[in-house]
Amino acid sequence: MPPLAHEPGHLGRRRFILTLGGGLAGLALAESCDVRWPADEAAGPGWAPGLEERLNSTCLVCPSRCGIRGRAVDGRLVGIGGNQLHPLSRGGICPRGAAAVQTLYHPERLRTPLLRVGARGAGRWRSLTPNGALTFLADRLQQLRAAGRPEALAVLAGYCAGSMDAVWRQFLRAFGSPNYVADAYPDGTDAIMAAMHGIPQRPSYDLERAGLVLSFGAPLFEAWWSPLQAYVAFGRPGEERERHPRFIQVDTRFSRTAARAHEWVAVRPRTHAILALGIAYVLIKEERIDADFLARHVAGFDDWLDDRGTLQPGYRSLVLRHYRTEEVSAATGVPIERIVGLAKMVADRGPAVAVCGADVTQAPDGLPAGMAVHSLNVLTGNINRPGGVLFRDEPPLAALPPAALDAMTRRGLARSPVALPAPLGAPNARRLAEEIAATQASPVEVLLLYYANPLASSSDGATWTAALSRVPLVVSFSPFLDETTSQADLVIPDLLPAERWQDGPAPASYPYPVWGIARPLVTSPGGGRSTGDLILALAARLGGTVGASLPYVDFEALLKARARGLYDARRGMPFGDEFETEHQQQMQERGWWLASAPDFEAFWTALVERGGWVDPFYDHTDPTRLARTAGDRIELIPQQLRRQADGAEARDPYRFRTDDDRTADAFPLRLNPYRMSTLASGTVGLAPWLAERPTTFPEVHWIPWVEVHPMTARELGLGDGAMVWVVSIRGRYLAQMKHFAGAARDVVNAPYGLRHPDGTLANPLQLLDGATDPLTDLASWCTTFVRLERA
Amino acid sequence: MQQLAGLFWNHTPRMMETMRRSGFEWPRLTETELSDVIGYLYYVKLFDEPGDPDLGERWFREKQCMLCHSVGGSGGRVGPPLDRYARYVAPIMLAEGMWNHGPAMQATQRMRGVATPTFVGREMADIQAYVREVSREAPRRAVFLEPPHPERGRQLFRTKGCLRCHGDTGRGTPYGPDLRAATVRMRVSEIAGVLWNHSFEMSARMRERGFAFPRFGGTEMADVIAFLYYLRFDETRGDSAAGVQVFRAKGCAGCHRPDTGAAIGPDLSRSEAVTAPMRLAAAMWNHAPAMYEVMRTRTVEWPRFEGDEMRDLSVFLRSLARSTAPARRAIPRR
Fold this sequence. Notes:
Chain A is an alpha/beta fold and about 800 residues long. Chain A is built from 28 helices and 30 strands. Chain A has 4 domains: about 50 residues, no CATH class; about 190 residues, Rossmann fold (3-Layer(aba) Sandwich), CATH 3.40.50; about 210 residues, Dimethylsulfoxide Reductase, domain 2, CATH 3.40.228.10; about 120 residues, Barwin-like endoglucanases (Beta Barrel), CATH 2.40.40.20. The N terminus of chain A is likely disordered. By secondary structure, chain B is an all-alpha fold. Chain B folds into 2 domains: about 130 residues, no CATH class; about 180 residues, no CATH class. Chain B is built from 16 helices and 2 strands. A two-stranded antiparallel ribbon of chain B has the order 1-2. The C terminus of chain B is likely disordered. Classes of the chains: A alpha/beta (about 800), B mainly alpha (about 325). At the A-B interface, helix 24 of A face helix 7 of B.
């Protein structure tokens, strides 16, 4: 009879390894030591050496969706590295991706569905079986349908990778609800492209082939779409920098991105667009613009006669009239010679690409400000050219079947959505909350929260608190009891990315379509079911139009069905090494395509094993990638904007205010919230080692901080490291104040996503003044004024 | 293939220096491996790089294509608009369309007093690039073609009746020329241009002989062109006498058969390496570092092989090996 695990003399496996380690150390000290442990003596039946497995997958922690390679031993994930075959990340991985192991095994992770049994937020729950949770939710949804109110179901998706977005839309459409709000990382760049190009999609930037990258507040190495794309384009630390594009960061603070740039151009808050137009002024004056491109593809550069015969000023006149270099210098704080030098660099070191970030677009005039930055790309003709701004294709996935509709579905879909979009925006979470909170009888009876934690991440927590109190059933799929999930009635925790099937297309910033596949690296020890699988099972349970519209056994089957579109497209390839990818790219650029697999099954196997699919081809000759406006021209004075705005604003969108209201002396400092790569989604509490990653201050960890210029701090009488309350008219939060010479005077830089050791979120967004851009509905991050009070 | 092997050899010193600086070891290649590498390079050279749209516009105008065809909304209406060809990146589909309509086009050109255009070099690729740039076809979805297959091309060469004039192996008959010489160092679009240039004469000759003018569908023309491209791939025939001259002029004899003193290199007439062209090329590649060192110390210039020199050298050395077997004869002294 084999010895039991607790019997003296038996070495448990863990103890065996420890003992073996000690034995080897002893062996090193005394070489004569003879250690023999035959396996049959060391362990009982069933013991086997650790089985190691390495699998390629896709990181779903942030929108970059880099390629990862998980290392599992005996079914436990022990490490995450980069997938060398992934065309965007090329083996790189950021700290958040690596920290996903910590999230996976976090002790506070929810393993079973929970049903609230006490008052909302009281923290009293009852466990449900997965099937019990499914039945509970299906019954409630059936009741909505039975009551003829399918539109009372709403979904708020905060981060919806890949086909989950299509599944939610299909589910709601077949159910009969128009209330889908996907409020995931809006940055306003899609609205800029919609206005100027008639193409409502986020642009791609061909950073690698650019000669110069001029970033206006875009945090390329921090919380941008893909910091890894920036690392590949500009070189990893230690690489020869001369081989890469020159990189200039225009920023209000000396950010980590500014530190990585060849040059940092410090500007006053809210003057990025003015600097861009100052550069445009020099380019026009010195005739360093692409006149041929402007003549062939652009409208609104020159003055024109409108329908009434009135002469309307074009972009050239507006810029020459209002953005003389001296005035721009005075407004931005950038010296005249620097402005001229920047313009010359744009002209000489092409292709030059101007990228704009949230610092520009998250303002009351964010859309025109973003247009001002993008107008530099238009002036230099650097659209749809190598090294420029591109509009890439999406992966040609097979579409889901057309949604089945019955009479009730059609009635529900005909109702007006609860959250209406702004003229150039999408429905957003704030509007949804306002509409729900506005009436006692909520238009939403069942609210599903998918990776959405608005109580923590939105700028209007109070509205959300009111809204949640009015919704009869709030369901969250979060694997953790975050702020909003704590207020839910039912929690059906999703599996974590390392345990589920999903897909992760590369972000729009990357110029080529990439379809990454996330596959289970390990099996969830507690069982459970991914939200994707749950929705498919829910659809099957509901049957009718919903069941017919999502006829997939599980999410893996759905992904495989969608991959058929890639196979049939006769383009692109499963991920390959640099040679294979380059070879395919060169062949496609010559018009030929190399098939990678003899049949679909082999193709699917290759996709899964290699981590995904890429089409390394971009059609620079396609005129529909330049403009899809009524006149097939890029519009510098967009007609769409003229229809939305009135008077002078419509005639001249390129006028910007810099004199934001500050409430006298009560709030003398401008608040400047910013995202950091490691903290962007507030996950630091779930992966503690992220708290120790280098930040602006190498010595500051585990405590929220704000950055203030030393002279400003001295004027306030606040020493370095003082604990302060950051106070606005909307609220306050506690933080440590750090002196930082890279901060602008009279500005408080506030990283977003930090928590105190007790888990309390230090959220600068909840101090915001509520201003928005009326055209995009994006919240303004740069017009709030605060004061600092010693704590 | 041997021409490429010669190019390989010519760049060897530069490669060695680069690899030494980068800390890479000189890779040894077997005969098969070198054949594969050269085969791959030979294959990829078949495919044209994209043309120049600005030049394409010029050719489109100068060759008077625009009198009959429109693209992007401007041009003549005699022939069909060319916008739909914009979906193809490779010029072969345009070339195939021209070929298929060649007799009719040429008849119309004669009727209208317009000279039939001819194409040289990359002009066809340039025109394709121009069509892609100005075409109004939308939505645009690039169509990629399956790479051409020489074996399929060989079969088409037979079934389309090309062999009746050019012979089974494309080496010509009294009715048609040897196609190997006509297509040397050309890529798809260039060979397509050559075919077009001769299509009028071809169609006339075929009419005389009572044959129908062949038409192509799908990517058949590309397959035929690939067949023509590969006609010279395994060309092992050469000029042994010219090879003797190469052997001496390039300094090979200085090491392998000096007029005076002992030979530094092995007697090649007794070497297995010379018995097959790629075996010789692999042996030269693998011994290149040693040869390089010797030549540096002796301040001998690195020999370069141009045109068919490598092939002729190989033929000469092979003839020596044959003539000395089994008791091999030494290379004759000057």
